[in-house]
Specification:
The chain is mainly beta. The chain is built from no helices and eleven strands. A hairpin with a 6-residue loop joins strand 4 and strand 5.
Length: about 130
């Protein structure tokens, strides 16, 4: 059974950076597409970024393009989300999710993912 654990969240000032990690246990991530999603209070869950099994296909939500970068290290069974130029509107709980059925590419629709982490809080505030 695949288990995902997010880490790296915290409080950061506007313009700052954070790197989130999504570490897997119980199974290898090699055969999974991975997505990062976020949810702010009172708002719907939003697709932030995703990466295909091979790492060759990446997608980003419009609100984070040019500021966030997703990567994966299959040897460490970990996926990363580098977040730069953070804004107060990036404040949310960030979740990583995995799906083994996405054979090629990845998608930013949360309902396509079957395994989820517990989330990590990111707060951008001065």
């Amino acid at each position: 059974q695949l288990q995902l654990v997010e880490s790296g969240g915290g409080l950061v000032q506007p313009g700052g950076s954070l790197r989130l990690s999504c570490a897997a246990s119980g199974n290898t991530l090699n055969y999974h597409a991975i997505g990062w999603f976020r949810q702010a209070p009172g708002k719907e869950r939003e697709g932030v970024s995703c990466i295909s099994r091979s790492g060759s296909s990446l997608r980003y939500g419009d609100s984070v393009k040019g500021r966030f970068a997703i990567s994966r290290d299959n040897a460490k069974n970990t996926v990363y989300l580098q977040m730069n130029s953070l804004k107060p509107e990036d404040t949310a709980v960030y979740y990583c999710a995995a799906d083994v059925r996405l054979l090629a590419g990845c998608v930013l629709q949360f309902h396509e993912y079957e395994s989820w982490g517990q989330g990590t809080q990111v707060t951008v505030s001065s």
